Fold:
Amino acid sequence: MATVGLIVHLGRESACAHAKDLANWLVSEGHTARVPPDDAAAAGLDEYRVDAAAFATGLDLVVTLGGDGSILRAVELLDGAEVPLLGV
Structure:
């Protein structure tokens, strides 16, 4: 199954709520969700928290929920890793 990273607009409650729904759905379908520390704290996703330095390792996809800033943060966290990125 896939390992999916989630990046959330930290100040947008709706993005945090959707991220929580998405993470729970991914896990219920047998996938793995990963969320960096700041995003995990903002969205209440501590159970999916990984250190920022380890975030990109082994990812199959990154989904950003927010805007341009969330996409730019995802690119920074990927640190050159060739991982598909989907902005929502």
